[in-house]
Amino acid sequence: MGTTNKVEFADAPEVGGKAGVGGNARVVELDLVARTAFDPEDEYRPEPVPEPLPPVWLEGGLRIGIHTSIAGSHVNALESAAKLGCTALQIFSVNPRMWAGGAIAARITDVDAKAFRERREALGLGPLVIHANYLINLAAPAPMLRTRSIQSFHEELVRGIALGADFVVVHPGSYTDSRPELAVREVIDSVKQAVKRLPATSMRILIENTAGMGSAVGSRLEEVGEIVAGLNGIAAGACLDTAHLFAAGYDIRTPGGLESTIEMIDQTIGMENVPVIHANDSKIALGGRVDRHEHIGKGKIGAEAFRRILTHPRLGAAYPEGLPGRAFIAETPIEDPGDDRKNVAALWELAGLSEKAPAGEKGYSMLTAAAKKKAVAALKKSGKKKKAK
Question: Range of 97's domain?
């Protein structure tokens, strides 16, 4: 039985009367307890799955990292990033200059993937960027190469999901004897084929701009923008490389040139679609169309230009002009022990964030003096063999 209560409502008064208290009142009985039958199915209906929390690295601060080596194990790359004072990192998931020997050979075991994800969480590193195999050519007009590239890129995405990567960066490829406009359509179609049968994930695909060597597609921001727009049904964006931009003819070295380049990025790609920037100085002059990276501040772009880039509000991570969690990842050469550490430190300093940089491990480098000595000896030995021939 429901419980009834008497509630008095004031009737509307006649013209000239008083509303509310003093007006005519009527009594209405209301059932204040709903009469509902128990549905036994309610007991077994699960609660909706809560939306996942955003990753910690999206707290708003600029992220600084470097490409680290997976030699020995994928976890070693995480340890190197932490020791070098990084908050983000990029890795290869496999050897980038060899075709993986089938899905089984290229697979990362569940145990190794779990250990990697747990260690990364413990170190607080992110975003995690995976750079795809250099042999992949999503624009290839040759059917066999394109098919192999699609399969290889699909495997990269599978490994990326297993490792918990946030982004997978891929070069769009080369159109060889085809045409650039056809190549753009081929890249779009190849990516769409590569993502088929993948589980749902927050991982995004990033198309990287190129320096413009030979028949490489993607040296023009319009081409990158067209590819990203063509992938609007997929979680896609762009990764812009500073050395590639400069070699392709975008003068990011000067204040005016940087502003016009940012405006062009906005018009073609959208700055909101550029969560990762490869921070590399260039050994090549403006418009040289050759991809040769140099240490930060030591190349043709220069330290002051990098200071402007790293502190520019549109390229930063502060809302509303920037993009929370935006990462600058160095792909600079390691010719001597400590080069990697110096380039990471240079990025923090030029961004005006040295005091916020992680301490890292003093004196650590991915290249040791012993490893360099061994590499030099191997190079000399190889040179002697070539000369003898």
Answer: 59-352
